[in-house]
Amino acid sequence: xxxSGVEPNYVTIASILPLCARVANLQHGKEFHCYITRRKxxxxxLLLWNxxxxxxxxxxxxxxxxxxxxxxxxxxxxxxTSLIAGYGMQGEGHIAIMxxxxxxxxxxxxxxxxxxxxxxxxxxxxxxxxxxFWFEKMQSFYGLxxxxxxxxxxxxxxxxxxxxxxxxxxxxxxxxxxxxxxxxTLLGACRIHGNTDIxxxxxxxxxxxxxxxxxxxxxxxxxxxxxxxxxKLAKVRTLMRDSGVTKSPGxxxxxxxxxxSPFVVGDTSNPYAPEIxxxxxxxxxxxxxxxxxxxxxxxxxxTG
Length: 304
Description:
The protein is mainly α. 65% of the residues lie in helices and 3% in strands.
């Protein structure tokens, strides 16, 4: 557009900024930041500044996100939600809650997305009491009826904290049908905390949904293997085979400067393979030094 002499408006830029965060390369995002700053016409465009806060926060650049936030003359629930979510993803739950309380003190009413960000921040930081409080008060204080995503946050919150009976209670009492992702969250928590009873309950409900994501089957198989339930493990393998579900190999995108290069597990054709494997070997040694012990995941037959 610029080379053609066409000046982008605020809608164009606000649409592009989220893409800059998704590709994990902020160079273009920073260029747009400079472009916005140099043009007075964008000075009072809250949509653009919110998009900038969101871009930096979603990329984990919280210092930059907070800097933009502090420079803004006007803020709304979107501004606060973006920053709360960013701090939550980084495990800074206390800061996220402080921002939420600041938002409330300014009489900016939260919406459903704000509450998802707050509950998620509590979950990632192990703030069980705080999460319970805001979940219970979101309807009585702000008239927000909890949706499926809020219940999902609570299952994650309790699951991470090892309060698996409470997580189960949330699922059984909520007025929604649990999704595969919710069952998977509970199942993963049961595996971490060694609760086979609730884990099997979650696995049975998850298998009823016949998910097409191979990761769920691997999660179930690993739980059965850890519990020594070999017959049930064999049934999972059979179900996965009969359903035509295959496990895709792990893939990472490696930043090599000007471009991102895909790197697949076991791939030796990648020109950067020697350097990547050398780095992985170094990370493996660091994990050994930190006394990390693998729990020995089961690789399902025929899943690659």
